[in-house]
Amino acid sequence: DLDECTASPCKDHQYCLNTDGSFSCKACDASCVGCTGEGSDKCKTCASGYMKEDEKCTDIDECNLPEKVCVKENQDCVNTPGSYKCICSEGFEDKDGTCVQT
């Protein structure tokens, strides 16, 4: 078997999987920018919103940072993979970018 992966035939956001007589390109984990294999522990670099922790790229919980990311009144922070969302607190709704009582 010839290892076609040595020629790096895959795109930047993929890794090469050598198979008998061939190869396939597989997508990197969402937490990676470039990777050498499957999973968040095979990232070349962590994607935005992720940080290297115990050799893995893990999600940064922006809602638990010392500096508040959702600064408008009556707004709550919701962590999402690689990012976060600011939503109006319960009993409030978004009206032109301001959280007003419902």
From TrEMBL:
**Which ranges carry the EGF-like domain?**
59-98
Task: Show the Gene3D superfamilies listed in the entry.
Answer: Laminin
| PROSITE patterns per the UniProt record, alphabetical | ASX_HYDROXYL, EGF_3, EGF_CA
Task: Work out whether the entry's keyword set contains Acetylation.
Answer: no
Q: Name one Pfam family in it.
A: EGF_CA
Q: Which GO terms describe its molecular function?
A: calcium ion binding
**Domain of life assignment:** Eukaryota
Provide this UniProt record's keywords sorted from A to Z.
Disulfide bond, EGF-like domain, Repeat, Signal
Q: InterPro entries, per this entry?
A: ECM_structural_protein, EGF, EGF-like_Ca-bd_dom, EGF-type_Asp/Asn_hydroxyl_site, EGF_Ca-bd_CS, Furin_repeat, NOTCH1_EGF-like
What is stated as this protein's family in its record?
Answer: Belongs to the CRELD family.
The molecule here is called CRE2A protein
UniProt gene name:
Creld2a
